[in-house]
Task: inverse folding
């Protein structure tokens, strides 16, 4: 197939391109090289057709003749603060809309695989021992200031046990980035319903690995911790460090994209390792791998963060044949010295 990869010069997109080429597909990249993520042209970009265009203005040329689209381009992370709101919606929502408009103008009815995110769930799934499964209410600033980080049962206020989140869990985006990712899913699904195209949303959990961006407000937590360790400082872990996530290696994410492209299945799929770890565990593993100081647990909190969210991978295993290949310990050991951007 001739596949367009938007954001193909980025962290995840470049690994997706590598996987596509290894599988024998023809690839075109379109990437803006947003200055928040790139301070120069990356050296690792594969030798393929590359359009240096902003999707909001350059999608027509990008979609010409393609059989499928793997839409990776987006502003990611929580950013700085609400001053980023217009940039996130412009790049993520409007960029996706312009891409779909250009595809429609070409009569495209092929396969669209969207890079979505676990942030669409907001808080993960919880169960109260007395009242069963319950939605976690937003955490109050006063509770967070007092170090009460666990969400309480909305019925009795008691503790709840976090559970893995399946794809049919209700969406509850709790920050601007999350809202734009859910809107991207809605836009792509609307396009598919009206054109007969096939739509897949891959809800990435916490992706890490080589080529991750560093030293930017949009960097992932793993690269932030590594930058501090390289400077001889301890990783600073927010809250009490017990917040749970699913850390998935970027090569597994690229493999999931290839499976989604070559499958006939549609819908949303979690892309994760299936093995949750706390943020404190991740920081400790990275510190040990780099021979650095132990993590510092700060007790600080960030608006928009959630407490626990980790994935069920039952659906992607059953329907796409996905099997994570990089174990947590091996991935962290590799990441300790992997080249970053």
Result:
């Amino acid at each position: 197939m001739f596949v367009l990869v938007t954001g193909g010069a980025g962290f995840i997109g470049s690994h997706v391109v590598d996987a596509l080429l290894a599988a024998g597909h023809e690839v075109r990249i379109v990437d803006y090289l947003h200055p928040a993520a790139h301070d120069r042209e990356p050296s690792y970009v594969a030798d393929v057709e590359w359009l240096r265009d902003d999707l909001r203005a350059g999608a027509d040329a990008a979609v010409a003749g393609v059989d499928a689209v793997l839409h990776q381009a987006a502003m990611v992370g929580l950013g700085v603060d609400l001053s980023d709101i217009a940039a996130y919606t412009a790049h993520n929502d409007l960029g996706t809309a312009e891409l779909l408009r250009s595809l429609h103008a070409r009569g495209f009815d092929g396969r669209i695989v969207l890079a979505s995110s676990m942030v669409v769930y907001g808080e993960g799934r919880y169960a109260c021992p007395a009242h069963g499964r319950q939605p976690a209410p937003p955490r109050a600033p006063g509770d967070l200031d007092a170090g009460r980080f666990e969400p309480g049962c909305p019925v009795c206020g008691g503790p709840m046990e976090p559970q893995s989140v399946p794809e049919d869990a209700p969406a509850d985006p709790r920050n601007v980035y999350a809202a734009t990712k859910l809107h991207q899913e809605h836009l792509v699904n609307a396009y598919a319903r009206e054109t007969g195209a096939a739509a897949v949303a891959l809800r990435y959990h916490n992706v890490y690995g080589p080529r991750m961006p560093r030293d930017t407000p949009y960097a992932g937590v793993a690269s932030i911790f590594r930058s501090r360790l390289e400077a001889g400082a301890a990783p600073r872990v927010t809250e009490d460090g017990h917040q749970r996530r699913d850390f998935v290696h970027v090569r597994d994410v690229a493999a999931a994209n290839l499976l989604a492209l070559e499958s006939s299945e549609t819908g949303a799929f979690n892309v994760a390792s299936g093995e949750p770890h706390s943020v404190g565990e991740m920081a400790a593993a990275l510190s040990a791998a780099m021979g650095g100081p132990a993590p510092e647990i700060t007790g600080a909190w960030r608006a928009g963060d959630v407490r626990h969210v980790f994935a069920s991978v039952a659906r992607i295993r059953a329907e796409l044949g996905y099997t994570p290949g990089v174990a947590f310990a091996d991935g962290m050991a590799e990441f300790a010295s992997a080249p970053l951007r």
